[in-house]
Known about the structure:
By secondary structure, the chain is mostly helical. 66% of the residues lie in helices and 3% in strands. It has 9 helices and 3 strands; from the N terminus they run αβααββαααααα. The protein has a 3-stranded antiparallel β-sheet. Helix 4 (79-103) runs parallel beside helix 8 (182-203) and helix 4 runs antiparallel to helix 9 (207-231). The longest helix has 25 residues, at 79-103.
Amino acid sequence: MTKERAASPRQQSVKALLGLRDLILKGEIEPGERLSEVALSERLDVSRTPLRSALQKLEQEGLVTLIPSGGYAVRSFTRQDIIDAIELRGVLEGTVARLAAERGAAPARLKAIREVVEQIDAVLDGGPEALDIGRYESLNGRFHALLSELAGSEVMRRELERITSLPFASPNAFVNTDVDVPAFYRSLVVAQAQHRAIVTAIELREGGRAEALAREHARIARQNLDFVLEEGPDLRRKVLALALMSG
């Protein structure tokens, strides 16, 4: 009984955080809309204390913002905001790749990221019809997490974690848009070639090349964003993060 009571507040906090994040990313709460603690606690079936904790966490993630009169509102982002966040991820990952090459990455970390690259190869080998997109997303997220650690800098790792907590700056933001669209499947193939090239450049201690490749790699997300907004607007609803975009 003691363990159950001790676990209950944590369970409530997780429920509040996941539930509120889900409502925001699905667009069920409009950008700019003020968040009512009373209404949300009833909607999510949680008490006010874990809800407040969730709001504080989401403010740190950049999904909600404090308003002058008190309380929180869902943050809205312009298209330029999204582009800037993607660009910043590229800058940070490029810096990590350069530092890893210049300082020399730990062999165990290089081995781990190489194994992930090989696993992604296996996922893509069957073509778009056989693609396990969930498996790809998991491995792609793992690649970027390992990349963030290669320089051995906790400062860089934390900053990358912070920027990628914005859903549209995540490495997987536009991965699951629609693999039946040839342009998106091709982007996965190109991204994988870049994964391999980044790791090779780091292993060869080619800092400038590693940085340039990592920055270019992030721009695939920018290209997919442009495609969704300009050429495939019917796909926009599949990119949950775009529910936060104003206009």
